[in-house]
Amino acid sequence: MKKVMRYRPTKKTRPYRLKSGSFPSIEQSTDVTADQQQIGQLKHDLLAAEDKLRHRNEIMETLATQNVESACETLLLKLLPLIGLTRGAIILYRREQLSHVVTEGVEEMELIEKDLDQYSVLRRAFVMRKSVQLPIETGGYESAIPIQSPSNNSVVGLIYLKHEFEQFNLEQVGDILDLSRKLGMTLERHLLFHQMEHEKIKTYQLLDSIREAVLYIESSGEQIYANQALLDMFPPKLLNQAQGFRHAYERATSLFEHVDQPDALHDYIGQLMNGDIPGETIELSAFRGNLLLSAYAERIAIANVEWGMMLVLRDVTKDKELDLKQAEFVSIVSHELRTPLSSIMGFTELLMKRSLDGPRQKKYLETIYSETVRLSELIHDILEIQKGEDLTQGATKRTIDLKKLLIEMKTMFELASSEHTVRMAFGSGAHLLMASEEKMKQLFTNLIMNAIKYSPNGGNIEIRTEVTAQDLRIEVEDEGIGIPDKALPFIFDKFYRADNSDTRKIGGTGLGLAICKMIVMDHGGSISVQSEVGVGSRFIVEFPIHPMS
Question: Looking at the predicted structure, is the pLDDT value of residue 191 above 90?
């Protein structure tokens, strides 16, 4: 199909005609250019101001969000372009000693040397507490601007700058001083924060060093804290294990779970929370009587404003046990002393009031003498027990040869009884021991004399030793009456004596083996016994070895 072309007439070109009026003058064109330049300058100044404002905002953000050391590095990188410089540093001081240096285009060692030079720009600015500028021998200038604490005006840092020009303009001075002021405020804020943290940690450590368990409850009842002693005293699963004075976020539930008198404790704490602080202590027990506690409370008030109360729990288990043991000891001593004294008084009274024949009088006097000897031995043993329990009475220890000591003592043992034979068998190796020679003599005198005493029919007394890499073992064995099985667990207790007809005939204070155990324990050793009734007993002493230096 053919395409029909339509005829379109072309437009006629119109001749150019000038509008009525005159052309712009040269003066008018110049004014327009000046306005445009002024607008451009205003735009440039506005952008510069915006850029400077952005830098300042970044500086403020840096001071608010970063720690001091990191902030100084960022601040220096932002300050130098802001004042048109490329070289500088920020120096921080703590307790008037240089603590941190951030540099840009300056060697750190150069600043450390300047800080030691009392005539340098740094020391002058630090001492005078004002900005100091000095010329540099190689050309240019260096300036130090102090960073001061707002509270006491002490110098906590310096801004150090290197520049070619002699004077800063007002804008540069304003920027530098503004940064110095803000940095001073930030450093003081951080210093106060660190001081608070330091005091906090010190308080935590002080409270953790207290042997008593401490529970702090704020007045609102929402915050409860516990020290390490409380964590040790009660299961820690309900208490936060964070370092320091811990937050007991289960409201001390552990206390109420394990205290045997939870209602009494609850009522006591209820009184405290109501502002009634009882003056007396309360006695509690925990873990089914295995832990005895004494509790008291103190109100915590600052500037007459009550903040909370402190509950102190003291473990008195050992004190109670000691009181019980002392009471028992006094009772037993009284009984043991009363027996010989009664005999002495009774027979003395008979001798005084009656006229007796020679043999009976002699018998009564012998009884009085034997009871007096027994009383003397009892008093001596009681004093030895007291010395053993008093650590301040401990004898001086030095390296001794136990083999040599036992050989020297053998003659004394042989003279003690003609019916007994004392035999000694020493193992190979050096029998060196860090010990008190006096206490070792007392120990083996007690053991061997016991063996002789409880072997009334005579027999052999065997003393054997064995030296190993760790221990020195000594055995004292007799062929005596032996010890019943039921008595073995108590044989080293004070005043304990196996209750049978044979031992009653022999007599004794019941303190000899208790003294032996104290001596052995004081030397870091152990003592045990093996025995069979009618066959004999074997006492085994083991000491940790001490080589000769």
Answer: no
